[in-house]
Amino acid sequence: MRIGNEHYRSIWTEGDGRRVRIIDQTRLPHEFVVADLASLDDAARAISDMLVRGAPLIGATAAYGFCLGLAAGATDRDLDRIGRRLVGCRPTAVNLHWAVQRMDALLRPLPLQERSDAAWQEAAAICEEDVATNEAIGRHGAELIRRIWQDRGQAGAVHVLTHCNAGWLATVDWGTALAPVYMAVREGIPVHVWVDETRPRNQGASLTAWELAMAGIDHHLLVDNAGGHLMQHGRVDLCIVGTDRTTATGDVCNKIGTYLKALAARDNQVPFYVALPGSTIDWSVDDGVAGIPIEERSGEEVLFVTGRCDDGRSGRVRIAPDATPALNPAFDVTPARLVTGLITERGICPASAEGLRALYPEQR
Ligand code: MRU
To answer: Backbone dihedral region of 23: left (phi > 0), alpha (psi from -120 to 50 degrees) or beta?
Structure first.
């Protein structure tokens, strides 16, 4: 995506293809800072501390972390150690496991001296595939937006509500939930986005709003509790969110609060779509509530908010009494029955085992 006159991805390499660079997302929206990842530890910390976040980008960063951790002639024990270090960084997004397994499966059979070159090529391939996948998600999802616009005689903007950030910053490029929006706008369809702020880390306010502003797309920021009210008043045409892990039966695990939006959408007959690449499907899990590990992050993220003060300096303020503790589950599961459809790179399917198997028959 473009920032000013430059095209950026959320992760890229420079020079000899081995200098890994990212946008430090903890500094947005007020500062645009590019950071280098020079070691396995840098990559692992970037994932744990959320300099990079979003399921597909976590996977791409893990792939480069693998490359950075491989010394010349890396042994099988080195592969084990690198995989363990990366997989422990964040538990919910399945792309992390997916990327580590993909790198491991490619590298383990190779002679030791060939492993490093192969790893760099594979990490680059994962990034290219992610971009192509998300572009395809964008094309399929834009059809939904176009249909709503045409059904109402092309009058006014289509109002899309999204939660958290599943835009290009959460992937290598394009995004998942926002890819249909970018694609539809490119095709000349007027789209307006309702952006949930997404407490506690405010990825909606700091990242989604920033992306949309950069792209010149009409949007408003909402407190997390406003979506249901807007749906009751006919001001949301459809919801599109991302997912960190999708079960084989179509349950989706996404940023905390997604489930409540899906409930409100169902109560108001607003279509609720989830956009995802095949790499976020965990074919080994059928029941999302019982089977997906939910990351619990520090209560500090709930007790404090960070932002820019009126004097222009960045600051962190406590919003609860000193003695109050906080619980901070980072994700929740929306059962398949509340999901209107899954927008994948292979097309749109019902959120069900049959729907997913029809699109991914090789998983039978
Ligand atoms: O905790 P985060 O910011 O990594 O959570 C991100 C989300 O929940 C996204 O919606 C999800 O990863 C899909 S990203 C394309």
So the answer is: beta
Domains and CATH numbers, the chain: 2-128 (1.20.120.420), 138-363 (3.40.50.10470)
Q: Mean of the pLDDT values across residues 245-269?
A: 98
The secondary structure of residue 248, as a DSSP letter, is: T
Reading the block at residue 269, the tokens are 């007959």
Burial 229-261 (b: 16+ CB within 10 A, else e): ebbeeeebbbbbbbbbbbbbbbbbbbbbbbbbb
Tokens 């960084």: give the residue: 89
Mean of pLDDT values over 107-111? 97
Residue ranges around ligand 1 (CB below 6 Å): 53-56, 93, 164, 166, 170-171, 176, 203, 242-244, 254-255, 330
Q: How confident is the model at residue 2 (pLDDT cuts 50, 70, 90)?
A: confident
Q: How far apart are alpha carbons 224 and 202 in whole angstroms?
A: 10
* pTM for the predicted model, two decimal places: 0.97
Mutate to test the pocket of ligand 1, among 130, 244, 274, 332 (most ligand atoms within 8 A of CB): 244
